[in-house]
Amino acid sequence: MLLSILREVVADGLLAVVLSFLFWAMWQCPIELTALLVATVIGALRLMRPVWARLAGRMHLRFNQWIEWPVWRRVASVHEAGHLIVAHRLGVPVAGYALTPAASYLHQRCGATYFEHHPNARDPRQLLRTLTVLVAGKVSEELVLGKSVGAGHDLRTLAQWAALIDAGLEAQGRSPVGAGFWQQACEAEARQLLKIDALLIEQVADGMRRHVPVEALLAAVDRARQPATCA
């Protein structure tokens, strides 16, 4: 709070210096008139600031809905499809998903996949499954789109988990392996699971864009693993 007030005071002070230079030094206004004009301009700007903030927010929201979201919608759906498919195939219960049209306006990611709570999340096998699901969105983008552009948050989370794993290894007197090792190993596992049926990623991603219930998407993943039967 105090820092915010200090920033506003400094900003108003700098603005007052600039306006004083314009009115008094360049335009040769009397000192009394210069002081009045500076106070009037700064006061008007302060009154207009809330209105401008609301207007800028609405403009940002509309820009996101009309321009940003149509571009990111496919990326987000392919990314979340990777999370969903790999999680389901590894036995991690999927609770739901969401694609967020106003993601940047709300300072959120464009999509999210939700999982049921595991009672023993730090179990080594469960932790490995968690890391594999975490990088599955990145792998899915690479398989379908040719490159990954929306995995920054996932990789930062993986680095945090890797730091905890390495700390545990060091506590046991073992050498840490680093986040790069876990990322590479888990990406290889996720890629193997997703390459079984690459078209399934597009199918699930399309279903997400059409708001298909998560149960139907999981059923589609199950059907994709069933062998074809002859009539």
Automatic annotation (TrEMBL):
Keyword Transmembrane on entry:
yes
Q: Does the keyword Transmembrane helix apply?
A: yes
- Give the stretches traversing the membrane: 9-27, 33-52
Question: Which keywords does this Swiss-Prot/TrEMBL entry list?
Answer: Membrane, Transmembrane, Transmembrane helix
InterPro entries tied to this protein: Peptidase_M41-like
Residues folding into a coiled coil are: none
Output the superkingdom of the source species.
Bacteria
Q: What is this protein called?
A: ATP-dependent Zn protease
Q: Which organism is it from?
A: Gloeobacter morelensis MG652769
